[in-house]
Design goal:
- There is one protein chain.
- The protein is mainly α.
- It has one domain: Multidrug-efflux Transporter Regulator, Chain: A, Domain 2 (Orthogonal Bundle), CATH 1.10.1660.10.
- Helices cover 51% and strands 8% of the residues.
- The protein has a two-stranded antiparallel sheet.
- The longest helix is centred in the middle third of the chain and has 10 residues.
- The chain starts with a helix and ends in a 7-residue tail after the last helix.
Amino acid sequence: MKNLVDQLKDMPEILSLREVADILQVSLMTLRRWDDKGLLKAFRPSDTQPRRYHKKDVITFLKKSSPENQG
């Protein structure tokens, strides 16, 4: 998990669906489902633009889903 957080440090504050999918090694559809369920919320700059993610939200998600945080 630490490597993923470190990887995010050099990335922009706003990430695309594809960038987050690549970092988390999940499909685009998985990210869309997580967004719909509220697990990792995305935003759309406008109704016609694709989903985007705030880097801080991805880092928070990684920390919450880390095995050491699950008891």
